[in-house]
Amino acid sequence: MTRRTFTAADQLDFAALSGDFNPLHVDPVHARRLMFGAPAVHGVHTLLWCLDQWAAQTEGPFSLRSLKATFARPLRVDQAVEMTVRKDDGGKVRLLATSGADTIARIDFQWEASAPATTAVKAASFAAAAPVEHHAYDGLEGTLPLALDPPLAARLLPRLAARLAPEQVAAVLATTRLVGMESPGLHSVFSELDLTFTGAGADPIAWSVTQADTRFGLVVMELRSPSLEGEVRAFIRPAPRKQLSFAAARGLVPVDAFAGQRAVVVGGSRGLGEVAVKLLAAGGAEVMATYHQGAADAQSLVNEISAGGGAAASASLNVLDPGAAGDDLAGWAPTHLYYFATPFIATGPRGGFLQSLFETFSAYYVSGFTGTVNRFDGPQLKGVFSPSSVFVEDAPDTLIEYATAKAAGEYVADLLQKRRPELRVSRPRLPKMDTDQTATLGEGQDADPAPVILRELLDFARP
């Protein structure tokens, strides 16, 4: 068994080697709004690393006869992964990549000893580029030229670079470039790879979409060249959710519904916090939206509200260290505090309880909430709004850690109300709604957040 942890620097190096610069893999700020909540390691990077580790146990040059891989779960950057050899029967091998109890990738391949490679592959790395964004997938086709940067390949995959036929390394790399940059492109998740190598050669690979099922978000592509044939399966990943516009918010809210409020909305740059910011500003509140990473999102939100006649500003705030807030919050004494801060809502093991995951949630919903209230407390503070979840009452089997931490957050909010009876403290249990956090593969959408949040905000504002 071998183990490693991929870093952000590893991601950028692999993007240059493969040509797959999809923001899911290389842009931490953009990736936080995607369905995994953080940058994910390229599936093909995990695959080739596993092959590279296996190659340490063999000698001499070799070539692949076939290669199948299923990418079962995402592997996040800075998350440890282990490679285990499950079967090594002569020329047939099965490898497993795991992280904790999760299977990340299953890899099956056949190989054979071969003479040193003589096929010339274009020696080049790839410059950063933007992936293609498609709105329809039927009929898509193209070609994938092969290229390989020998020094970069030797640094990232030393054994494969030295011993596996370079055209085969380049061909496998080309599959992630196809999925991440061409088809599906921008909104993609690599699912499966199935290649059969029929000979030597560095000819471009022709690809074409043979199936596109938007009900399940599935795209199937056929690959063919004089030296290989095969199939790649990928999913169409949901795009970041767009919440209601400020103009739409103004059409929903009485103009003076929140007049007189000087509101801090923690976690206000996206999701439910973004909805609350727009509704509060539309109702006449002066709003400060805080963000942790999304400075550009927050500024765009402020610009939209300001252009529409509302009063809004933004500032950086890390709820795990609220005392370190910058100058933008100096002197900002709110009358109302709205707490929407949350980590990525990761699922736990089915039928189990992952203590580290519970602690991650609790850092936001318990200690982060308490520290943020203390940061903004003062004689001017009249109300604290910290939404909980209906999952406290009936949690899915894989959200026990989340629900337990939310229940603890409710207890802390109730304790605040008991100790500070002059404050109005609200912790409504909200239903599952349509945000980046709830995005899933395939069709389907959760409830619109705007009417739900507006109802709770109006109730909170009543005397």
UniProtKB/TrEMBL annotation:
It comes from the Bacteria. This is Acyl dehydratase. InterPro entries: HotDog_dom_sf (IPR029069), MaoC-like_dom (IPR002539), NAD(P)-bd_dom_sf (IPR036291). Residues 427-446 are annotated as: Disordered. Residues 3-92 form the MaoC-like domain. Gene3D superfamilies: Hotdog Thioesterase, NAD(P)-binding Rossmann-like Domain. It holds the Pfam family MaoC_dehydratas. CDD domains: R_hydratase_like. SUPFAM superfamilies: NAD(P)-binding Rossmann-fold domains, Thioesterase/thiol ester dehydrase-isomerase.
